[in-house]
Amino acid sequence: MNLCIDSRKVQEGDMFFCIDGSALDGHDFAEQAVDNGAKVIIYEHDMPMKDQEGVIYIKVPSTLDALNEAAASLNGWPSKHLTMFGVTGTNGKSSISYLISKIYTKYKGECGYLGTIGGQMEGKKYDVPLTTPDIIPLQRTLEEMRRDGAEAASIEVSSHGLIQKRVGAVDFDYAIFTNLTREHLDYFKNMENYFQAKSLFFRNLKPTAVAMVNIDDPYGKRIEELCTGKFMSYAIEQPADYMAKDIVYSPEGMSFTLVHEGKEYPVTTNLQVTYNLYNLLAVAGTLDQAGLNLEDVIREFEYIPSIPGRMDEIRFGQDYRVIVDYAHTDDSYNKLLHYVRHDLPGIKRIITVSGAPGKRDAGNREIFGHYFSQYCDYSILTEEDCRDEAPKKVADEIAAGMKDGYPHEYIENRAEAIQAAVDMAQPGDIVLVLGKGAEKYLDGTTGKRYWEGDDVSARKAVQNRLEREK
Ligand SMILES: CC(=O)N[C@H]1[C@@H](OP(=O)(O)OP(=O)(O)OC[C@H]2O[C@@H](n3ccc(=O)[nH]c3=O)[C@H](O)[C@@H]2O)O[C@H](CO)[C@@H](O)[C@@H]1O[C@H](C)C(=O)N[C@@H](C)C(=O)N[C@H](CCC(=O)O)C(=O)O
Ligand SMILES: Nc1ncnc2c1ncn2[C@@H]1O[C@H](COP(=O)(O)OP(=O)(O)OP(=O)(O)O)[C@@H](O)[C@H]1O
């Protein structure tokens, strides 16, 4: 029997779960589900429809809990057979969960990854349209990975996923917290609601699960108070179970000393920006707890092939730098731009290309603008996922946050904007293309359309210029 939560997709013989959602109530569609062939209706509150013959109606205290139970059982509770890593927080989820899956696979056994970069495991792809998939596809995919040989899975746990109980039947062994800064306020309304959603992850851990928490983030400290698993910490600014000190930045990466249980481990990495140091501490601490050799893990940090769309540097031997990054929150803008201005040696001018998403939390636009004029030398504003807002209006709102006289321009077409930024770069300058990373679409006023990705577009722009200058 198939499980279904959308009456429009019900097929003959399905079990339909009525979910009271954020916009609509699935109970209102039970009748349509029956018309489409549903034979079992699982509901949690009374409905205006009459019972129909041949259909079984079951009332439960929570349809989401029942759905979790059913989807996990139907798939043989895959997470109980896998070592499960989950990463939550505003930024860093993909970077950390992706790295965990790669390093775990090398040293211990196949580890699948599920998240924004797309579900994958050693050459296989799994179709997951959301960062944290809905309950039914999540359980199905974990089981598929298990059948494909996975011993572990590393997944991103979004705040939407937590509040909508998408991971309600996932038996986590390791839970990582990165940070909590402004995002998704269109949905959560305020930071406290947003934190409460994230905290669900740590309130529901089994006692043997390990929580690896960034305690330099004030919300990390709050997690310690409510965590039901074994609380462990990582930090740079204070003592922690896994701590970094003596950080040295170079044009090509960073080095630091990792301190754990009084022992010091020298680390070098090609990853850039201080936030990646936090990400590496989280990966090292978690994999150490998972039984990998810490020295093996650290050795892997020395050269990390770029994580798609994250600090992806375009190198054709040109005398200026071009980096594409998926920064899309004020915190990541602030940390990235601060790093390039103050910590990255040898940079002359900073030129940025970016926009901001439409129909989401619009409050961050002025903040983006403020950071540009605080840290950079020139900004080109362009279309991003503007949805039903005009791209120019979004750009004007970013510009409103800039200091008076800060030089910037608006070029609507994203590829042209990237080309213009590359064309104006002089020796020693850096062009930062921010916001979309490797994503292959732009969500505009006419809906989603194909976009080659900032990474591909920036590569073409550099090649075009080199071609012209031959
Ligand atoms: C805003 C949001 O999070 N929506 C999620 C939510 O849907 P909802 O509660 O809004 O659903 P609803 O429209 O109110 O409908 C309620 C119920 O009625 C049913 N229905 C509705 C109409 C109908 O004709 N028949 C019918 O049966 C629906 O199928 C649903 O079961 O619950 C659904 C089932 O779990 C999710 O698929 C859906 O994710 C949508 C697709 C989505 O785009 N979510 C995004 C915002 C999201 O989750 N993003 C996170 C964030 C990532 C990050 O940090 O960047 C992610 O994990 O991807
Ligand atoms: N620990 C961190 N703190 C702040 N910013 C970070 C951190 N790690 C990465 N970033 C920034 O956030 C961007 C997105 O990183 P990443 O994809 O790992 O985060 P995420 O939490 O998975 O976000 P999403 O689910 O939206 O992809 C990066 O391109 C970088 O600019």
From TrEMBL:
| A family per Pfam | Mur_ligase_C
The family database entries (PANTHER family) matched by this protein are listed as:
MUR LIGASE FAMILY MEMBER, UDP-N-ACETYLMURAMOYL-L-ALANYL-D-GLUTAMATE--2,6-DIAMINOPIMELATE LIGASE MURE HOMOLOG, CHLOROPLASTIC
What processing steps or modifications follow its translation?
Carboxylation is probably crucial for Mg(2+) binding and, consequently, for the gamma-phosphate positioning of ATP.
Q: Where does ATP bind?
A: 89-95
Q: Where is the Mur ligase C-terminal domain?
A: 309-437
Instruction: Tell me where the signal peptide lies.
Output: none
As one GO molecular function, the record gives: ATP binding
- Keywords of the record: ATP-binding, Cell cycle, Cell division, Cell shape, Cell wall biogenesis/degradation, Cytoplasm, Ligase, Magnesium, Nucleotide-binding, Peptidoglycan synthesis
GO BP term (any one):
cell division
The residues listed in the UniProt record as binding UDP-N-acetyl-alpha-D-muramoyl-L-alanyl-D-glutamate, with positions renumbered to this chain, are 7, 131-132, 158, 164, 166
Please report the stretch or stretches of sequence annotated as the Mur ligase central domain.
87-286
- What is the protein's known function? Catalyzes the addition of an amino acid to the nucleotide precursor UDP-N-acetylmuramoyl-L-alanyl-D-glutamate (UMAG) in the biosynthesis of bacterial cell-wall peptidoglycan.
The record, for SUPFAM superfamilies, names: MurD-like peptide ligases, catalytic domain (SSF53623), MurD-like peptide ligases, peptide-binding domain (SSF53244), MurE/MurF N-terminal domain (SSF63418)
- NCBIfam families xref list: murE (TIGR01085), PRK00139.1-4 (NF001126)
Keyword Cell division belongs to the record: yes
ATP-binding recorded as keyword: yes
Classification via InterPro entries? Mur-like_cat_sf, Mur_ligase_C, Mur_ligase_C_dom_sf, Mur_ligase_cen, Mur_ligase_N, MurE/MurF_N, UDP-N-AcMur-Glu-dNH2Pim_ligase
Cofactor list: Mg(2+)
Any coiled-coil regions, as ranges: none
So what family is this one in? Belongs to the MurCDEF family. MurE subfamily.
Cell compartment(s), UniProt? Cytoplasm
Q: In which pathway does it act?
A: Cell wall biogenesis; peptidoglycan biosynthesis
N6-carboxylysine modifications at: 198
| Annotated protein name in UniProt | UDP-N-acetylmuramyl-tripeptide synthetase
Q: What is its main location?
A: cytoplasm
